[in-house]
Design goal:
This protein has six helices and five strands. Helices cover about 40% and strands about 20% of the residues.
Protein backbone atom coordinates (compact mmCIF):
# COMPACT_ATOMS: atom_id res chain seq x y z
CA UNK A 1 0.00 0.00 0.00
CA UNK A 2 2.79 2.42 0.90
CA UNK A 3 4.62 1.66 -2.38
CA UNK A 4 1.38 2.15 -4.31
CA UNK A 5 0.78 5.52 -2.63
CA UNK A 6 4.37 6.56 -3.39
CA UNK A 7 3.96 5.51 -7.03
CA UNK A 8 0.72 7.45 -7.40
CA UNK A 9 2.27 10.56 -5.83
CA UNK A 10 5.36 10.24 -8.04
CA UNK A 11 3.32 9.82 -11.20
CA UNK A 12 1.11 12.81 -10.41
CA UNK A 13 4.25 14.85 -9.76
CA UNK A 14 5.33 14.06 -13.32
CA UNK A 15 2.26 15.69 -14.86
CA UNK A 16 2.91 18.91 -16.67
CA UNK A 17 0.08 21.40 -16.33
CA UNK A 18 -2.17 21.46 -19.38
CA UNK A 19 -1.39 24.33 -21.69
CA UNK A 20 -3.45 26.13 -24.25
CA UNK A 21 -2.32 28.46 -27.00
CA UNK A 22 -4.27 30.84 -29.20
CA UNK A 23 -3.53 30.91 -32.91
CA UNK A 24 -4.88 32.40 -36.12
CA UNK A 25 -7.02 30.76 -38.84
CA UNK A 26 -10.00 29.22 -37.06
CA UNK A 27 -11.62 26.56 -39.20
CA UNK A 28 -13.51 23.32 -38.83
CA UNK A 29 -11.25 20.34 -39.61
CA UNK A 30 -12.40 16.92 -40.81
CA UNK A 31 -13.60 14.60 -38.08
CA UNK A 32 -14.92 11.11 -37.39
CA UNK A 33 -18.30 10.33 -35.83
CA UNK A 34 -18.98 11.84 -32.39
CA UNK A 35 -17.77 9.59 -29.61
CA UNK A 36 -16.94 6.80 -32.07
CA UNK A 37 -13.84 4.91 -31.04
CA UNK A 38 -11.24 5.36 -33.78
CA UNK A 39 -9.84 2.20 -35.39
CA UNK A 40 -6.38 3.82 -35.48
CA UNK A 41 -5.97 3.53 -31.71
CA UNK A 42 -4.02 0.94 -29.76
CA UNK A 43 -5.76 -0.67 -26.80
CA UNK A 44 -4.40 1.90 -24.31
CA UNK A 45 -5.16 4.89 -26.56
CA UNK A 46 -8.68 3.58 -27.15
CA UNK A 47 -9.15 3.13 -23.39
CA UNK A 48 -8.00 6.74 -22.73
CA UNK A 49 -10.45 7.96 -25.38
CA UNK A 50 -13.30 6.04 -23.71
CA UNK A 51 -12.34 7.13 -20.16
CA UNK A 52 -12.05 10.81 -21.14
CA UNK A 53 -15.44 10.70 -22.86
CA UNK A 54 -16.95 8.97 -19.80
CA UNK A 55 -15.61 11.80 -17.60
CA UNK A 56 -17.14 14.36 -19.97
CA UNK A 57 -20.48 12.58 -20.15
CA UNK A 58 -20.56 12.33 -16.36
CA UNK A 59 -20.40 16.15 -16.33
CA UNK A 60 -23.12 16.47 -18.98
CA UNK A 61 -20.67 17.37 -21.76
CA UNK A 62 -20.68 15.97 -25.30
CA UNK A 63 -18.20 13.26 -26.23
CA UNK A 64 -15.03 14.31 -27.97
CA UNK A 65 -14.59 13.41 -31.63
CA UNK A 66 -11.45 11.74 -32.97
CA UNK A 67 -9.44 13.90 -35.36
CA UNK A 68 -6.63 12.30 -37.38
CA UNK A 69 -4.57 15.52 -37.49
CA UNK A 70 -4.78 16.04 -33.72
CA UNK A 71 -3.95 12.36 -33.31
CA UNK A 72 -0.81 12.76 -35.43
CA UNK A 73 0.22 15.79 -33.35
CA UNK A 74 -0.22 13.83 -30.09
CA UNK A 75 1.77 10.89 -31.45
CA UNK A 76 4.59 13.19 -32.60
CA UNK A 77 4.83 14.79 -29.15
CA UNK A 78 4.64 11.48 -27.27
CA UNK A 79 7.37 10.01 -29.50
CA UNK A 80 9.61 13.08 -29.08
CA UNK A 81 9.19 13.10 -25.30
CA UNK A 82 10.01 9.38 -25.17
CA UNK A 83 13.02 9.76 -27.49
CA UNK A 84 14.37 12.69 -25.46
CA UNK A 85 13.18 11.20 -22.15
CA UNK A 86 11.76 14.61 -21.28
CA UNK A 87 8.26 15.53 -20.16
CA UNK A 88 7.34 18.94 -21.60
CA UNK A 89 4.90 20.77 -23.85
CA UNK A 90 7.79 22.50 -25.60
CA UNK A 91 10.85 20.52 -26.68
CA UNK A 92 13.42 22.92 -28.18
CA UNK A 93 15.61 19.92 -29.11
CA UNK A 94 12.96 18.47 -31.44
CA UNK A 95 12.15 19.34 -35.03
CA UNK A 96 8.63 20.46 -34.02
CA UNK A 97 9.17 22.05 -30.61
CA UNK A 98 5.77 23.68 -29.96
CA UNK A 99 2.10 22.79 -30.22
CA UNK A 100 1.73 25.45 -32.92
CA UNK A 101 4.64 23.96 -34.88
CA UNK A 102 3.03 20.52 -34.75
CA UNK A 103 -0.33 21.95 -35.87
CA UNK A 104 1.26 23.69 -38.84
CA UNK A 105 3.20 20.53 -39.75
CA UNK A 106 0.07 18.36 -39.96
CA UNK A 107 -1.88 21.12 -41.73
CA UNK A 108 -4.35 21.64 -38.90
CA UNK A 109 -6.17 24.98 -39.24
CA UNK A 110 -6.99 25.79 -35.65
CA UNK A 111 -8.42 28.51 -33.52
CA UNK A 112 -7.24 27.46 -30.07
CA UNK A 113 -5.70 24.22 -28.92
CA UNK A 114 -4.73 22.62 -25.63
CA UNK A 115 -2.50 19.70 -24.70
CA UNK A 116 -2.17 17.31 -21.76
CA UNK A 117 1.06 15.37 -21.27
CA UNK A 118 2.15 12.85 -18.66
CA UNK A 119 4.88 10.32 -17.91
CA UNK A 120 5.32 7.56 -15.37
CA UNK A 121 1.84 6.05 -15.42
CA UNK A 122 1.52 2.31 -16.13
CA UNK A 123 -1.81 2.35 -17.99
CA UNK A 124 -4.77 4.32 -19.35
CA UNK A 125 -6.74 4.29 -16.10
CA UNK A 126 -3.94 5.81 -14.03
CA UNK A 127 -3.01 8.52 -16.54
CA UNK A 128 -6.65 9.64 -16.85
CA UNK A 129 -6.97 9.59 -13.05
CA UNK A 130 -3.81 11.73 -12.84
CA UNK A 131 -5.15 14.21 -15.39
CA UNK A 132 -8.47 14.44 -13.56
CA UNK A 133 -6.75 15.26 -10.25
CA UNK A 134 -4.68 18.04 -11.85
CA UNK A 135 -6.47 21.39 -12.19
CA UNK A 136 -5.03 22.35 -15.59
CA UNK A 137 -5.45 18.93 -17.15
CA UNK A 138 -8.96 18.52 -15.75
CA UNK A 139 -9.89 21.91 -17.22
CA UNK A 140 -8.75 20.75 -20.67
CA UNK A 141 -10.70 17.47 -20.41
CA UNK A 142 -13.91 19.12 -19.16
CA UNK A 143 -13.79 22.27 -21.28
CA UNK A 144 -17.27 22.63 -22.82
CA UNK A 145 -15.73 24.27 -25.91
CA UNK A 146 -13.58 21.24 -26.71
CA UNK A 147 -14.85 19.32 -29.73
CA UNK A 148 -12.04 17.10 -31.04
CA UNK A 149 -9.08 15.15 -29.73
CA UNK A 150 -6.09 13.03 -30.60
CA UNK A 151 -4.08 10.72 -28.31
CA UNK A 152 -0.52 9.41 -28.48
CA UNK A 153 1.49 7.04 -26.30
CA UNK A 154 5.17 6.20 -26.73
CA UNK A 155 7.64 4.15 -24.74
CA UNK A 156 11.14 5.47 -24.04
CA UNK A 157 13.98 3.11 -24.99
CA UNK A 158 14.15 0.68 -22.08
CA UNK A 159 11.78 2.83 -20.07
CA UNK A 160 8.39 4.20 -19.24
CA UNK A 161 5.44 5.47 -21.15
CA UNK A 162 4.88 9.05 -22.32
CA UNK A 163 1.32 10.22 -22.96
CA UNK A 164 -0.05 13.16 -24.94
CA UNK A 165 -3.61 14.26 -25.63
CA UNK A 166 -4.39 17.24 -27.86
CA UNK A 167 -7.73 19.09 -27.77
CA UNK A 168 -9.32 21.59 -30.13
CA UNK A 169 -11.39 24.45 -28.74
CA UNK A 170 -13.81 26.53 -30.71
CA UNK A 171 -13.24 30.26 -30.56
CA UNK A 172 -16.27 32.01 -29.11
CA UNK A 173 -14.87 35.54 -29.35
CA UNK A 174 -11.66 37.35 -30.14
Amino acid sequence: MRVQTFFAASAVALLVAGCAIPAPSPSTPAKAGAGARPNAYSGAESRIFDLINAERQHQGLPALVYNAQLDRMAKIQAANMARLRKLAHTLPESQLPTLGDRASYVGYPFGRMAENVAQGFPNAETVVQGWMTSTGHRHNVLDAGVAETGIGIARAPGGGLYFCQVFWRRLTSL
